């Protein structure tokens, strides 16, 4: 059995050694994406020597050949080299010091601010990767992203509630995010998008949306 860690999304957020270091698990293979190339398009696969071997001794000409525009491109290789050097720098290493406690405290601060403002918004997350959750059932929770945008905050993917911070956020910048998020949620609440009839549940709303979608798809109702 082979253990493969897909770090294309997480990259080096949790620790310098990625999820393997953060969780104390040594995978057999690891995949990386553009996080390793400073944002440039690149795919990296690394692992044990026996798994990375590209040929069979009995058929040395039978190799696995991959091609692409950015394969071993000097510009990309240079960016990767700079990134890895930067990763070893004292400045970046300092960002990892106490990272779990720092972001756990910020998550608690965010949720406390929402609760004190009487807003049906909460967040769950792992370090700098958060997901926005809601405490009241509504068909329109996804609209919060537009109110956030009006306050200068952009969630990562439409409708998912995903929020990603960079590791170098300081306390002042985070406090501004919380203040803007509160204003956005208050504006949405004031506009009435979180009203729901008594007894409404998320399950009920999902069924309603499904029925309406099917009716529109098949021309019924």
Describe this structure in words.
With 221 residues, the protein is α+β, with helices and mostly antiparallel strands. Helices cover 42% and strands 12% of the residues. It contains eight helices and six strands. The strands form two sheets. A three-stranded mixed beta sheet has the order 1-2-3. Strand 4 and strand 5 form a beta hairpin. It is globular, with a radius of gyration of 23 Å.
Summarize the structure.
By secondary structure, the protein is α+β, with helices and mostly antiparallel strands.
Key phrases:
221 residues, alpha+beta, 3-stranded mixed β-sheet, 3-stranded antiparallel β-sheet, 8 helices
Strand content: 5-15%
**Spatial gap, N to C terminus:** 52 Å
Give the % helix.
40-55%
- Kindly report the average pLDDT value: 88
List the helices and strands and how they pair.
Elements lengths: L3 E3 L11 H6 L5 E4 L11 E4 L1 H4 L21 H14 L2 H7 L2 H18 L4 E6 L2 E6 L9 H7 L11 E3 L6 H20 L11 H17 L3
Parallel strand pairs: 1-2
Antiparallel strand pairs: 2-3, 4-5, 5-6
Helix pairs in contact: 6-7
């Amino acid at each position: 059995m082979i253990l493969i860690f897909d770090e294309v999304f997480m990259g080096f957020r949790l620790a310098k050694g990625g999820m393997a270091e953060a969780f104390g698990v040594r995978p057999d293979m690891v995949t990386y994406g553009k996080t390793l190339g400073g944002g440039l398009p690149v795919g990296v696969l690394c692992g044990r020597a026996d798994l990375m071997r590209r040929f069979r001794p009995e058929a040395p000409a039978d190799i696995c050949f991959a091609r692409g525009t950015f394969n071993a491109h000097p510009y990309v290789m240079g960016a990767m080299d700079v990134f890895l050097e930067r990763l070893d720098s004292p400045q970046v290493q300092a960002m990892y010091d106490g990272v779990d406690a720092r972001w756990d405290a910020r998550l608690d601060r965010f949720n406390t601010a929402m609760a004190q403002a009487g807003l049906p918004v909460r967040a769950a997350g792992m370090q700098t990767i958060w997901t926005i959750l809601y405490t009241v059932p509504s068909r329109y929770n996804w609209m919060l992203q537009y109110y956030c945008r009006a306050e200068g905050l952009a969630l990562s993917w439409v409708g998912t509630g995903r929020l990603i911070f960079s590791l170098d956020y300081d306390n002042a910048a985070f406090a501004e995010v919380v203040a803007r998020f509160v204003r956005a949620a208050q504006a949405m609440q004031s506009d009435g998008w979180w009203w729901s009839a008594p007894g409404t549940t998320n399950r009920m709303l999902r069924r309603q949306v499904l029925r309406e979608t099917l009716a529109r798809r098949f021309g019924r109702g």
